[in-house]
């Protein structure tokens, strides 16, 4: 099976829309890939949807590598992108390169994603020069949502829109292969998409981007804490899972499970063994 490369990704701009979803484990990665997904992002949303944190900030490199490795092992064709967690690339270009290389060497990722605009261009340039393909991420950047006053739509006025457009161009200049646009007005995402030569991947950024990404647990109805307004839930699995588990509990309690077909038989007759065990315990 031919692996999708970052070059294929770039060539899709203006040709065919790109579909991405997040994944955090091998079996989900296998399922998403068998449905035909183009790329899997091992997002630091891991912290919130899998590890039970209230934000993405506590997620560590070791946790990301652990899950990114699992996703890579469950994937044959899709492009696997590792999300660099908070604190793993902001200190220096050297730190960013060392951690970016770990995503490729230890977790089998084809690329990494970093959040930020012109402020992180030196870091992005160093990563690209070291051979680590980089996906940018601007707009609402969850790792710095605190500084933005929370999880809010970005680029609503002209000054903010100009800054985001400048950020997109600066990141393109230092070699990103793709750019996530999160929580932006659709009309601004359209302008950025038309301006940069790399594919834009929208999340809450309208229909004009070159591709879309969603958190898989949101799309499948597996994360019940909250649902961002831009998410379309294609199926609501949480009630189905609860119903199945309630059925299991009920059958365990009333003895309906397991049945003969779920049990192992033996040609031996163990009644003598029982009699012996009872004798020795009396
Ligand atoms: O962490 C994540 O899952 C993300 C995407 C949703 C863009 O950054």
List keywords for this structure.
8-stranded parallel β-barrel, single chain, binds 3-methyl-2-oxobutanoic acid, 13% strand, TIM Barrel, 11 helices, 2 domains, 282 residues, alpha/beta
How would you summarize what this structure contains?
This protein has 282 residues and is α/β, with parallel strands linked by helices. The protein contains eleven helices and eight strands.
Notes on the structure:
The chain is α/β, with parallel strands linked by helices and 282 residues long. The protein has two domains: 6-236, Phosphoenolpyruvate-binding domains (TIM Barrel, Alpha-Beta Barrel), CATH 3.20.20.60; 240-281, no CATH class. The protein is built from eleven helices and eight strands. The protein has helices at residues 6-11, 26-34, 46-49, 61-73, 93-105, 121-129, 158-173, 186-195, 216-219, 237-254, 271-281, and strands at 18-22, 39-42, 79-83, 111-113, 134-139, 178-182, 200-203, 211-214. The chain has an eight-stranded parallel barrel, surrounded by six helices. The model has no long low-confidence stretch (mean pLDDT 96). The structure holds 3-methyl-2-oxobutanoic acid (KIV). The site of 3-methyl-2-oxobutanoic acid has 11 residues, from strand 6.
- Total tally of structural domains: 2
| Helix/strand structural class | alpha/beta
If you average the pLDDT, what whole number results? Answer: 96
Order of helices and strands: HEHEHHEHEHEHEHEEHHH
Overall number of strands: 8
Enter the CATH topology name of the largest domain. TIM Barrel
In CATH terms, what is the architecture of the largest domain?
A: Alpha-Beta Barrel
User: What order do the strands of the largest sheet run in, or round the barrel if closed?
Assistant: 1-2-3-4-5-6-7-8
Q: Helical amount among residues, as a percent range?
A: 40-55%
Query: Which stretches of 5+ consecutive residues score pLDDT under 50?
Result: none
Count of alpha and pi helical runs: 11
Specify the CATH homologous superfamily of the largest domain: Phosphoenolpyruvate-binding domains
The end-to-end span amounts to 65 Å
